Amino acid sequence: MFDINLALQIAAPEALLAIGSMILLMLGAYGGEKLGRVVSLLAVALLIGAAGVAANAPLGMVFNGAFVSDPMSVYAKVAIYLASALAVVLGDGWTRRNGIARFEYPVLIVLAAVGMGMMASAGDLMSLYVGVELQSLALYVLAAFHRDDGRASEAGLKYFVLGALSSGLLLYGSSLIYGFTGSMRFDEIAAVAAGGAETGLIFGLVFLICGLAFKVSAAPFHMWTPDVYEGAPTPVVAFFATAPKFAAMVLFARALSEGFGGAHDQWAQVLVIISLISFAVGAFGGLAQRDIPRLLAYSSIANIGYALLAITAGTQAGLQALLLFMTFYMVDTLGFFALLMALSRGGRPIRRIADLAGLRKDKPVTTIAITVLSLSVLGMPPFAGFWGKFYVFGAALQAGYWIVAALGLVASVVAAFYYLRIIKVMWFDAPPEGEGAVDPSPRDAQWIGWAAAAFSFPLVLIALTWLEPLARNAATSFGAG
Amino acid sequence: MIQAIAFYLLATVSVVSALLVVTAKNPVHSVLWLITTFFSAAGLFVMLGAEFLAMLLVVVYVGAVAVLFLFVVMMLDVDFVQLREGYAKYFPLAAIVGLILLAEMIVVAVAAAQGGAARGAELIPATDVSNVEAIGRVLYTEYVYIFQAAGLVLLVAMIGAIVLTLRYKPNIKRQDIGRQVNRRQSDAYANVQAESGKGVTLEDLK
Lengths: 481, 206
Description:
The complex is a heterodimer.
Chain A: H1 4-10, H2 12-31, H3 36-56, E1 60-62, E2 67-69, H4 71-97, H5 104-120, H6 125-143, H7 150-181, H8 186-192, H9 199-215, H10 224-231, H11 234-240, H12 243-259, H13 264-287, H14 292-313, H15 316-342, E3 344-345, E4 348-349, H16 359-362, H17 364-378, H18 384-398, H19 402-428, H20 443-476
Antiparallel strand pairs in A: 1-2, 3-4
Helix pairs in contact in A: 2-3, 2-5, 3-4, 3-5, 4-5, 4-11, 4-12, 4-15, 4-20, 5-6, 5-12, 6-7, 6-12, 7-9, 7-10, 8-12, 9-13, 10-14, 11-15, 12-14, 12-15, 13-14, 13-19, 14-15, 14-18, 14-19, 15-17, 15-18, 15-20, 17-19, 17-20
Chain B: H1 2-23, H2 27-47, H3 51-75, H4 80-83, H5 87-115, H6 131-139, H7 144-165, H8 177-182, H9 185-188, H10 202-205
Helix pairs in contact in B: 1-2, 2-3
């Protein structure tokens, strides 16, 4: 038995969000759409409050090892909850402008945030699976949120079917691991797998990795990503390109390093292959894209490759690199999608790269912001994205994966082409003939995008002095809850 | 002896009917085979001494889930011929993938038979508590976290179903029981003095 009070203190952020989401649900259900705005505001306050609670909650392992709270999970949770709060803000404005505002949107994001917190804190296979399901189920609904739009429904259905398949893989892998180790807990699995895993265990591990790779959209499990990014409502895409990826990567790192630390050689080769394919698909697949959300989908596939490379290193430097890389990637992506939502021409949202032509004349600040974010994602120093990749490559070189790191650099150079194309179209191409100027931007999306760009450069240089020790601390005391 | 016979019978039936689930031409037959699979799996549970799980399997899966499947399959307008169209085209690829998976499973099964699955775990000592009691003791204590989280998953599923399907139609005619009950005789009809032989026009009724 365990002390339930202590357990609730340690799991306070999740408990707060879970109870808060139910209160919001009641408020929305009885107050009707009049209270929609209030529910959104309260959801933002709730998520920011949960981030504060997460930062101050005691650390430890409770619920028989199912819930682990260590500096790594705290770091991840603060980032995830803040990104979710931004997604609520972006989504509230967007759904209102498109006439599909419903109070369930913030409630579902809060519930997804509970699932992501569970993923970041998962200490055994059961909480891993339940956390992943809670998060994905909320995301399936959000993807199809614009239900009268054919493409959104298609995106939701595709995401659901492939997500269900990946959950099946995850469960099958978990059942094999349980069968061969006799335990669900990562620390007890680690004791069995200490001297390298046997055949059956590896089989289960590979299934587990495949299931998780589906969730983070790493190639070759990426088929759903471009279609879903294209079809789902833009704020929802901004959400699930960021926070759930972070949660899943932390979960990935925890399951592999903590549960299978002794079998590093065996899983590292699987991850190397996955990240190499992700580099290739992300870099070359993106070249042919004309649609900006699809382009960002391929960009996210390539970026997940870098994050997996950081896990592959299997060292503390690797974990630190993972946290920093994912933080910067999250800021860049959120900013990119926010600016994309802020742009429309003649009432129609801008979605194709060609539509960005001549943006310089209509919206100089936004053009500068998109330029900064593009340069950051492609990893140009001294922008934020560069520092993320810098730490990842540093960790990979230290662990001896220099060939993979070199190929990653090559992929980065190839991917640079499509970001540079965006910059070229915005700055140097003439605006399309016969079409009006770009519409005035909604303030919420525009300011979030500008803020993200300001973070990418120059604020990142200040933030780095503060984030770097935090991430290092999280990596060194990883799993020591 | 009788146990072995029962085990092999149930195991064979469940494997064969599981195969038939995926090979049956008619989806309705598939669901019926699925029910057979569930029943034989329930029998296997009973043999393991897990009567409660066996009952749950029958009540929940056969009673609710499979019957729901049956309803859905019968209500959907599925063209079975069209559904089978790509079968021959995809069969070779599917067969290769299936064979690879089968080979891998055999490798794992052999590994399990040799190394022994779960050899790291000590067996749970047999106690005199019943199934229900044993589950009840841990469900709200050791596994309360997972249990509550699973509850949240169901909540999300419920919200999702409502978000994606419920539509408020403003112009629809709904039954308002309060108004029905409160309706008085004087609202419903009025006596009109109609002259004999002249009939009544619509104007008189206003």
